[in-house]
């Protein structure tokens, strides 16, 4: 069941300041220290642990936790963007705006049961499609734009024409869902034709490691490392 949480979000955005004033004033925090935090954290050592502060608000509970366990790695999640902004300021840790009744977007997940939860930033040209562009520009001089000799024009037109075969929403880019090898496009039952088999290459450059934050661009600023020797010998 999908729950529409729009009103919930609007509500918490609207009461953010009042909530802050009434729940986190000095008396309330003294009460929390004594009756919440002391019993809650007693006997625990969260140093070195990754802790999700769910419905974190502006982070007072995380701050209290970090006072006791300075080496805990805390992340806040809240439906209110105001609360998340305050969380980042107060705790100095990521405050992620999230509807906790739904799965979180996963920016590094290529595949997922729900298309809305897949990689959403991917802008890629599958190898086989790049090859088609190459053929259009250099080899299909009679069948593709006969008479057009300007290289740039041929390249732009070939790119547009080949991408359009796969780009079902016509936004000019091939998303992960559109370019998935299992997706049908251009009259074919799947997209296998878009990918040149790895065994046809004699060297590789690693530009992206899906599901491994070490090489994901958001962590590395676009780091890529070509391998010195071919990974596959033909
Ligand atoms: Ca598209």
Give me the strand/helix succession: HHHEHEHEHHHEHE
Which structural class do you get from the secondary structure elements? mainly alpha
Mean pLDDT, as a whole number?
A: 81
CA gyration radius, whole angstroms: 25 Å
Q: How far apart are the termini?
A: 51 Å
Bound molecules: calcium ion
- Strand percent estimate: 5-15%
Q: Give unreliable regions as ranges.
A: 209-234
Q: How many domains comprise the coordinates?
A: 2
Q: Taking strands numbered 1, 2, ... along the chain, how are they ordered across the largest sheet?
A: 1-2-3
Per DSSP E runs of 2 or more residues, the count of β-strands stands at: 5
Number of helices: 9
Global geometry: elongated
Largest sheet: 3 strands, parallel
Helix content: 25-40%
How would you characterize the overall build of this protein?
- The longest helix has 16 residues.
- The protein has 9 helices and 5 strands.
- With 234 residues, it is mainly α.
- Strand 1, helix 4 and strand 2 form a beta-alpha-beta unit.
- A 3-stranded parallel sheet has the order 1-2-3. It has a two-stranded antiparallel sheet with strand order 4-5.
- The protein folds into 2 domains: 92 residues, Rossmann fold, CATH 3.40.50; 112 residues, no CATH class.
- The structure holds calcium ion (CA).
- Calcium ion binds next to loops.
- The site of calcium ion has 7 residues, from loops.
Q: What is the structure about, briefly put?
A:
With 234 residues, this protein is mainly alpha-helical. Helices cover 37% and strands 8% of the residues. It binds calcium ion.
Give me the secondary-structure topology.
Blueprint: H1 6-14, H2 16-23, H3 26-41, E1 50-54, H4 60-68, E2 73-78, H5 81-91, E3 95-97, H6 127-138, H7 151-164, H8 176-179, E4 205-206, H9 217-220, E5 225-226
Parallel strand pairs: 1-2, 2-3
Antiparallel strand pairs: 4-5
The protein binds calcium ion.
Calcium ion is lined by residues 167, 169, 171, 173-175, 178.
